[in-house]
Amino acid sequence: MLPPPIDPTTLNQIAALWMWNRHQQALDQQIYVRADRTAFVRPERWEPWNDDRLPLVRFIEYFRMSRADFAWLSDELRETLQQDPLRRGAPLSVEAQVAVGLYRLGHGATYVMISHVFNIGKETADKATGHFVQAVLKVLRLQTISFPGLDAHDKWDEIIELFEWRHGIPDIVGAIDGTHIPLAIPPSDEWKGYINRKNWASLVFQCVVNGDGNFRDVCDPPLHNSYIQSTSSQLLHALMSDERVWTVGQVFGGGAGSIHDTRVFRRSDLGISLNNALGREMRIPPGTHLIGDAGYPSDVNVLVPYPSVVAPENVHFNHIQSATRIIVEQTFGRLKNRFRILLTAQKANPVRARNTAFVCMILHNLLNKRGTLYLQGWDERSRHELRFGELPRLNEHDQTPPPPGESMWTRRDRIRDMYRR
């Protein structure tokens, strides 16, 4: 017996129910769609030296020098910075390495920020900065920061005239003072030697500048023993790689911030040569002297102020002496305002940090010589940068008895008496 026929309406309902069930199962299944494969293409590198639309002032803000100075510096370093064009990838051009190095020194920017600005890798920015620093030290250090030879009488006379033109004190061949460069160090007992009296880590430099505000001599004491013992492997790696220990003038090693300026002077080649009692060869002409503040000893060829200002003539002399000596503090200010990395605690080992400071001083002299524009806006400092200002000098007046014959005591009295007439 055949089954009864199915109602067409019921058959349609069963088919619709079956289709709805299949649709729900399809929605529950995970469907993987493979995206089109595309290779990563880094954006084009920023090349402002080839962009004539960039205003001159903006270019100076970025790189601390004009286009003409930038081109000159690139040409000077081209032989040292030129990379093999057949290497893998796209090596940075000489101009790009100079731009990255100048941006790092001028702004104290991190390598992550520099990589975004120039559209390069962070490691590439780090290497480019290191190559730039080493190239400047290799090519320009000897011809930029140095005293003239003792037989170069014309150059010494020019230096003396610049200082005498300021306030009338004769026979000055340089203003001497110390400055501290901040350094970021890990919290460890081995690094306590770098903590200065303001409780932040630094490297100390003793500098001599002329009447134009150019560095003539830079000196810092040797590397701290704790750093050599605790990071001997890192230091060896730095010495065997691009981070060489360069010398500028009579510089050797790195100076820990805890060392007092007077001790730096006593142990420096310049301080030893200025001490007549040691019988060393003088580095400045006979009859000339440096000018410094009260922290320097008065038994060497350094003209310091009177420790006692009871007499009115002593007060007047100290005022003239301070007004003449202030050129070295102004030079430190312009140096750090132009190269803001010197106002930033560098996360680098002392060898690299001191090399960076030397390069800033070299570029400072070169830009002054070429007459590069100094923007007044650089004089403004943030609250964080003000923390790393100059350390105040302790009033440590040397009371050593004067030696017989012509000494700095009698020379100072003779200069003081000039203003009484």
UniProtKB/TrEMBL annotation:
Renumbered residue ranges of the record's region Disordered: 393-412
KW rRNA processing (keyword) present: no
One cellular component (GO) term of this entry: nucleus
A Pfam family: DDE_Tnp_4
Signal sequence region: none
GO molecular function: hydrolase activity; metal ion binding; nuclease activity
Stored InterPro entries: HARBI1-like, HARBI1_dom
Domain of life: Eukaryota
Cofactor(s) for this UniProt protein: a divalent metal cation
Keyword check for Metal-binding: yes
PANTHER family: GH03217P-RELATED, PTHR22930
Protein's UniProt name: DDE Tnp4 domain-containing protein
Organism of this sequence: Puccinia graminis f. sp. tritici (strain CRL 75-36-700-3 / race SCCL) (Black stem rust fungus)
